[in-house]
């Protein structure tokens, strides 16, 4: 497992924006203001969009060599025909 999971500018930015939206939505929910609540919900979604855009821009976590090897090995296993199993196609 990667020891730096989530410690990227994209992750931090997305979480901080979403946290602010959560606080706004919570405060307006207590204040019984539906418009403010939905504005906070929109900010939460904005955090996900901004984090995803930053990841696509190269500011997210880079794939590890171990993960690449594991994916290649799993792909080979999926495409290798199994032999010796009686009734495998029955």
From TrEMBL:
InterPro entries in the cross-refs: DUF6704
Keywords: Membrane, Transmembrane, Transmembrane helix
Annotated segments matching region Disordered: 59-90
Superkingdom, natural source: Bacteria
Pfam families: DUF6704
Ranges of biased composition (kind: Basic and acidic residues): 65-82
Transmembrane segments: 12-31, 37-57
NCBIfam families on file: HGxxPAAW
Protein name according to UniProt: HGxxPAAW family protein
Organism of origin: Streptomyces lavendulocolor
């Amino acid at each position: 497992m990667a020891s730096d999971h989530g410690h990227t500018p994209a992750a931090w930015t997305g979480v901080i924006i979403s946290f602010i939206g959560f606080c706004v939505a919570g405060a307006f929910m207590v204040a019984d203001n539906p418009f403010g609540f939905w504005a906070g919900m929109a900010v939460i979604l904005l955090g996900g969009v901004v984090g995803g855009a930053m990841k696509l821009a190269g500011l997210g976590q880079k794939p590890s060599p171990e993960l690449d090897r594991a994916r290649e090995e799993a792909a080979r296993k999926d495409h290798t025909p199994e032999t010796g199993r009686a009734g495998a196609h029955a």
